Amino acid sequence: MEPKIPGAPGPQPPTVAEPTEPRDPLPPKPDQDAPETVSPTGAVTGAPKTANSQQGPFLTTAQGLRLYDTDHSLKAGARGPTLLQDHHLREKITHFDHERIPERVVHARGAGAHGVFVGYGTAESVCKAGFLRKGKTTPVFVRFSTVVGSRGSADTVRDTRGFATKFYTDEGTFDLVGNNIPVFFIQDGIKFPDIIHAAKPHPDREIPQAQSAHDTFWDFVSLHTEATHHVLWHMSDRAVPRSYRTMEGFGVHTFRLVNDAGETSLVKFHWKPAQGVHSLLWEEAQLINGIDPDFHRRDLYDAIEAGAFPQWELGVQVFPDTPEQTFEGIDLLDPTKIVPEELAPVQPIGMLTLNRNPTNFFAESEQVAFHVGHLVPGIDLTDDPLLHARLFSYLDTQLTRLGGPNFHQLPINRPHAPVNDMLRDGYHQTAVHGGAAPYRPNSLDGGCPFHAGVADGAYVEMPQRVEESVKVREAPASFADHFSQPRLFFHSLSPVEQEHVIRAFTFELGKCYEQAVKERQLRVLARVDARLCSEVATGLGLPVPEFDGELPEVTPSPALSQIGRRWPVEGRVVGIVADHSVDGVEAARAALEEAGVVPLVIAPHGGPLTDGLVAQRTFLTARSVEFDALLLAAAPPPAPDALPARDTKAGAPSSTVDPRVALLVEEAHRHAKAIGAWGEGASVVGDGPGVVTGDDPTAVVQDVLTLLSEHRVWDRLA
Ligand code: HDD
Question: Which domains does the chain have, with CATH numbers?
Answer without folding.
Answer: 110-413 (2.40.180.10), 479-560 (1.20.1370.20), 573-717 (3.40.50.880)
